[in-house]
Design brief:
The protein is about 85% helix and about 0% strand. It is an all-alpha fold. The longest helix has about 35 residues. It is elongated, with a radius of gyration of 15 Å.
Length: about 70
Amino acid sequence: MTNDPLFWFMLLSVAAVLVILMAGIGTFGKGGAFNRKYANKIMRWRIGAQLFAVVMIVLFVVLRGNGG
């Protein structure tokens, strides 16, 4: 499984969601002008990345699943 490029692509997409989520939580916690200006945009990026990650996970399971 670790030599499968689709597995690594799926893993990178999940990691991207985590990074975007941590950035969003960090801006919420810090507050200020940056948070007011970019909080919604960061969370929209997270939703898009999360959708992509879910599609990659489903694609991986469908294409590489053992069927049992």
